[in-house]
Amino acid sequence: MATKLVVDCSTGITTEVELTAEEVAQREADAAAWAAELAEREAEATAKAEAKASAIAKLAALGLTEGEVAAILA
Amino acid sequence: MATYKLIESKTVGAGGAASIEFTSIPQTYTDLVFAVYVRTDQSATISNMLFQLNSDTGSNYYSKVFWGNGSSTTADYAEPATYFYAGPAFSGSVSTATFFGNASIYIPNYTGSTVKTALTESITEDDATTRYNALSTGRWTGTAAITSVKVFSGGSANLVQYSTISLYGIKKS
């Protein structure tokens, strides 16, 4: 069972408390939400990188040099 | 002259812990500083540092963070979120054994009646090619004086044994 440490600063007493069912459920929900958010951001980053690579390829196909492409993207 | 006083320090025991929460924080200082030294059991090189104020689990936190790992930089955000998001401040279980992430959390004017802000800085050293430096800033829309702070990681990660957080109070006069 997962626990948490609670420190009462007024007394200095530390208590190790088991997570309630609600807290466990919240952690699981947070984990799922976090994983979904990360996946979304990774997909967004991948799409952006792919679009950039595609744009570079198209510019190169038009005859631009690597230096010229870099100057445009800078 | 400002004084800097240890209020409480807590180290996680053998079983690990989901979080460390400081409660009944005395209202006799101007600012709070947390010195954080944490490793988690998350199966990754790094773990995120998150924290909540006054047990508020609502979507009342707005954070921006950026970090670099020696070869690239990343800007990220979490707004609104149910916690302050401070980026990769903890070492995960895949990082070199015995290495713990180091961070500080600075919360100014915590006894005031306006929106609260927090600043963090951190480093996760891996004794290898990759290490993460992160800086974050955020605000909590609550206006109550801060009486408790809970520090934890994302998902279901636990803080492992010997993880330590010390709370200091700063008094400006």
What proportion of the residues of chain B form beta strands (DSSP E)?
A: over 45%
Largest sheet of chain B: 8 strands, antiparallel
Query: H/E element string of chain B?
Result: EEEEEEEEEEEEEE
* DSSP, total strands of chain B: 14
Strand order of the largest sheet of chain B: 1-14-3-10-11-12-6-7
Mean pLDDT of chain A: 86
What's the Cα radius of gyration of chain A?
25 Å
User: What's the helical proportion of residues of chain B?
Assistant: under 10%
Spans where pLDDT lies below 50 across 5 or more residues of chain A: none
End-to-end separation of chain A in angstroms reads 53 Å
Proportion in β-strands of chain A:
15-25%
Principal-axis shape of chain A equals elongated
The shape of chain B is globular
Q: Key features?
A:
heterodimer; A: alpha+beta; 2 helices; elongated; B: 173 residues; mainly beta; four-stranded antiparallel sheet; 14 strands
Describe the fold and architecture.
The complex is a heterodimer of chains A (74) and B (173). Chain A is of the alpha+beta class. Chain A has one domain (3-73). Helix content of chain A is 66%, strand content 16%. In chain A, a hairpin with a 4-residue loop joins strand 1 (3-8) and strand 2 (13-18). The N and C termini of chain A lie far apart (53 Å). The model of chain A has no long low-confidence stretch (mean pLDDT 86). Chain B is mainly beta and 173 residues long. Chain B has one domain. In chain B, strands 1-14-3-10-11-12-6-7 form an eight-stranded antiparallel sheet, with no helix packed on it. The mean pLDDT of chain B is 92. At the A-B interface, strand 1 and helix 1 of A face strand 1 and strand 2 of B.
Give a short overview.
The complex is a heterodimer of chains A (74) and B (173). Chain A is of the alpha+beta class.
